[in-house]
Specification:
Helix content is about 55%, strand content about 10%. By secondary structure, it is of the alpha+beta class. It folds into two domains: about 80 residues, Glutaredoxin (3-Layer(aba) Sandwich), CATH 3.40.30; about 100 residues, Glutathione S-transferase Yfyf (Class Pi), Chain A, domain 2 (Up-down Bundle), CATH 1.20.1050. Bound molecules: glutathione.
Length: about 200
């Protein structure tokens, strides 16, 4: 049985958990909840980076990085999602948006003494620019069941979760439609972060 180490609030882990469900791999993967900031033996033995998600394979090797795990899971599926370089390009842009939103969140929860308005502003400008770029990308229909679309939808959902004042919907009506296409899916609902 494959073991997917995750934390319930990690959007990177959520991507993998959604794929397990969407690709019909639930019978092959057991999910192990962890908190990466607790430095548990379970996580550190599997992943020296101390981060989730981490997928431990049947032969004991472990995969890190959500995009790598996602590609691997897709290859295991009976009916894999089609993926080409354009999809990977969108996946990387969506993943970068997520990285910026997570980095902003880290800045927000820092101790006031080391809080940096410079870095906060830099992250927020990056988020705004990337939302603009992704909104333009959505002028061309994006296949909703793709790694690119899923990653973008997850990044938008993470903005609702940790940066609700971003009002990304007013900047991106097409992005709103992409998010809505994912928002009602069982896999998205089952893996939503706890409030
Ligand atoms: N690029 C990585 C990012 C993973 C990541 O940063 N995970 C966070 C949780 S959202 C984590 O485990 N953080 C613990 C730490 O950085 O020490 C991926 O795509 O998997």
């Amino acid at each position: 049985m494959l073991q997917l180490i995750y934390s319930p609030t990690s959007p990177y882990a959520r991507k993998c958990r959604i794929l397990v469900r969407e690709l019909g791999l639930q019978g092959r993967v057991s999910e192990i909840a962890d908190n990466p900031f607790d430095d548990t033996d379970t996580l550190l033995q599997a992943n020296p980076l101390g981060r989730v998600p981490c997928l431990v394979l049947d032969d004991g090797r472990a995969l890190t990085e959500s995009a790598v795990i996602a590609a691997w899971l897709n290859e295991q599926a009976a009916a894999p999602w089609p993926s080409d370089w354009d999809d990977r390009r969108l996946e990387a842009l969506g993943g970068g948006l997520l990285d910026l939103a997570v980095a902003r969140r880290v800045e927000m929860v820092r101790d006031e003494a080391i809080y940096s308005a410079h870095w906060l502003g830099r992250r927020e400008r990056g988020i705004a620019r990337t939302l603009d770029a992704l909104e333009r990308e959505c002028a061309v229909a994006i296949e909703p069941l793709s790694l690119g679309a899923l990653t973008i939808a997850l990044a938008l959902d993470y903005l609702d979760f940790r940066y609700p004042e971003s009002q990304w919907r007013t900047q991106g009506p097409r992005l709103e439609a992409l998010h809505a296409a994912w928002f009602g899916r069982d896999s998205f609902i089952a893996t939503a972060p706890p409030l």
